[in-house]
Amino acid sequence: MINKLIKEIIKKDAPIVVGLDPKLGFVPTHILDKWYGELSYSLEAVGEAIYEYNKGIIDATYDLIPAVKPQIAMYEQFGIPGMIAFKKTVDYAKEKGLVVIGDIKRGDIGSTSEAYALGHIGTVSVGDKSFNPFNEDIVTVNPYLGTDGVQPFVDVCKANDKGIFVLVKTSNPSSGEFQDRIVDSKPLYEIVAEKVNEWGETTVDSEYGYSDVGAVVGATYPEMGVKLRALLPKSYILVPGYGAQGGSGKDLKGFFNKDGLGAIVNSSRGIIAAYKNEKYASFGDTGYADASRAAVEDMLKDIRENI
Amino acid sequence: MINKLIKEIIKKDAPIVVGLDPKLGFVPTHILDKWYGELSYSLEAVGEAIYEYNKGIIDATYDLIPAVKPQIAMYEQFGIPGMIAFKKTVDYAKEKGLVVIGDIKRGDIGSTSEAYALGHIGTVSVGDKSFNPFNEDIVTVNPYLGTDGVQPFVDVCKANDKGIFVLVKTSNPSSGEFQDRIVDSKPLYEIVAEKVNEWGETTVDSEYGYSDVGAVVGATYPEMGVKLRALLPKSYILVPGYGAQGGSGKDLKGFFNKDGLGAIVNSSRGIIAAYKNEKYASFGDTGYADASRAAVEDMLKDIRENI
Q1: Dihedral of the CA atoms A61, A65, A71, A75 (nearest 10)?
Q2: SS3 string of chain B?
Q3: Is the pTM of this model over 0.90?
Q4: What residues of B are in contact with residue A76 (Cβ under 8 Å)?
Q5: Whose CA is closest to B167, among A196, A213, A146?
């Protein structure tokens, strides 16, 4: 799967991913009002509104970007109708040729991780039929439970040509509380990075030399990005934290290899809620999708200039 | 919420929780065949079968137990119909007066953790209405992202009288890979335990002296259970790993305080798939729920004798 993502990145000259994290406050009023009118104030109305909002953004940007990253929490918070919106968003993005990175941060004991892996990037069998329940291409994985919690995801990747990004150093302010603690004279995130290399070892493809097991490293920690780029020679790095969380283009160079590959930078709020930003306010609420396109173009410019 | 759980534990003299982790292979053939007949081989049929199976187990055991712990991965793997079965299971268990511990192991950056917390143990507002989408009483939380990933759960607990159990030392074989690493001359799980104390500080209730922020510590690591019991004086400990994973009653004493409170032991497969165990085979497939009841009675005997 990583090869498919890399090819799309090269084709579009765009090492970026749009985070589809639809907070209710981001959805323009005209969309909300339409669905509240049809389905009253309900979770069902929210689910439909979120999906319509996402669809607009995908339609306005899919030719510029290789991938989208829906954050499942933003859907899960609205219960079953939210999960339906998640699933429809995944399916629609794939219809438009995008790679879909499900930001699910799952991780559990072995047999339970296997269930997550099968449901999100694998296949479940029912009688003589089989189904791909959520059908993302790549998912994010939490490593806190260790190898037996991650290996089932790797196995399912291999069986289905899918990928994972393992949390190594997250973008949030408290990420250092445990991840930076010193173990055997190096920070825990380096120990996790060593495991990422091990987990990915058997999934390296010869075409570009990257493995299907990538790493998440926040844009908000550029020095650690440089260190981890060197420690993870065969892993793609998914870099959240650009834009609204504080990372900018000049912080990103160190996450990439010299050939311009090796990293993919996520922006969520900065793209999907661009119309709420003064810079793009002239698009207005009804032009939210065009505002997202303009924000993608500006992000691409910033990143292409800096890497 | 912890008080409600403690009262139920005392009333039923049962510091145990039944893990509703319905692998497809556990669901008796007569239930599967019925739903395959009605809905053909489909995720919808699996969702209905899982719910009927769970309902049977709940009906046969609710008078003996204080709580159930559905593991969401086992539902999520079957997509939307699986999630519907999860939601219906939560609702039905609550109807029967059980405390519901959602084993979701979520954890993310702050604003995202808040979305998970609102969706699972909180309230979301839509126009002038509000909803409790999944409506568990307590959920499990992964601490790897640090305080800003956990605090939103604590805040939602306080606002809604709910609870969380934070992963401290998990029951799986690889849990030591990161959790046991030595930081400042103590294992990482102790550092996490110290944070659990901090996070729970403002949620301690005077009646029994426990906080709404508990800890997960696997039955498979009894010596660490003793250490963590001492380090976490105000936290209830959720103890998975009893039975099928290898923990037994004699390993459990150290997880409890002298008054017999302080811990709640989970068994999943050992209870819900008891009819597949030679010991309870005489109940047959159609007597699976009665087999579960017998297994609960045996588990209670084992635990009451040992703590």
Answers
A1: 30
A2: CHHHHHHHHHHHCCCEEEEECCCHHHCCHHHHHHHHHHHCCCHHHHHHHHHHHHHHHHHHHCCCCCEEEEECHHHHCCHHHHHHHHHHHHHHHHHCCCEEEEEEEECCCHHHHHHHHHHHHCCEEECCEEECCCCCCEEEECCCCCHHHHHHHHHHHHHHCCEEEEEEECCCHHHHHHHCCEECCEEHHHHHHHHHHHHHHHHCCCCCCCCCEEEEECCCCHHHHHHHHHHCCCCCEEECCEHHHCECHHHCHHHCCCCCCCEEEEECHHHHCHHHCHHHHHHCHHHHHHHHHHHHHHHHHHHHHHC
A3: yes
A4: 115-116, 119-120, 133-134
A5: A146
Contact (CB<8Å) A109/B170: yes
A156 contacts chain B (CB < 8 A): no
3-state secondary structure of A222: helix
Give this complex's ipTM: 0.97
Give the span between the Cα atoms of A190 and A168, in whole angstroms.
8
Q: What is the pLDDT of residue B248?
A: 78
**B244–A contact, CB cutoff 8 A:** no
φ/ψ bin of A209: left (φ > 0), alpha (ψ from -120 to 50), beta (otherwise)? left
Q: Does B219 touch chain A (CB under 8 A)?
A: no
Q: CB B188 to CB A177 under 8 A?
A: no
Residues of chain B contacting residue A84, judged by C-beta atoms under 8 Å apart: 80
Question: Which residues are CB-contacts of B81 (< 8 A; sequence separation ≥ 6)?
Answer: B42, B43, B44, B46, B47, B48
Per-residue model confidence as pLDDT tens digits over B206-230? 899 999 999 999 999 999 999 999 9
Residues 6 or more apart whose Cβ sits within 8 Å of residue B180: B169, B187, B188, B189
Q: Going by C-beta distance under 8 Å and a sequence separation of 6 or more, which residues neighbour residue B63?
A: B12
From the list B12, B7, B14, the residue with the least C-alpha distance to B264 is B14
Report, as residue numbers or ranges, the catalytic residues of B.
Answer: 105
Task: Return the half-sphere exposure (C-beta side, CA atoms, 13 A cut-off) of residue A191.
Answer: 24
**Residues of A in Cβ contact (< 8 Å) with B112:** 21, 71, 73-74
Indicate yes or no: CB of A126 within 8 angstroms of CB of B45: yes
Predicted local confidence at residue A264, as pLDDT: 98
In whole angstroms, what is the distance from residue A89 CA to residue A107 CA? 23
Residue A40 clears pLDDT 90, i.e. is over it? yes
B contacts of A177 (beta carbons < 8 Å) = 146-147, 195
How far is B28 from chain A, CA to nearest CA, in Å? 14
Is some CB atom of chain B closer than 8 A to the CB atom of A115? Answer: yes
- Assess contact for A57 and A80: CB atoms under 8 A: no
Can you give A71-87 as a three-state secondary structure string? ECHHHHCCHHHHHHHHH
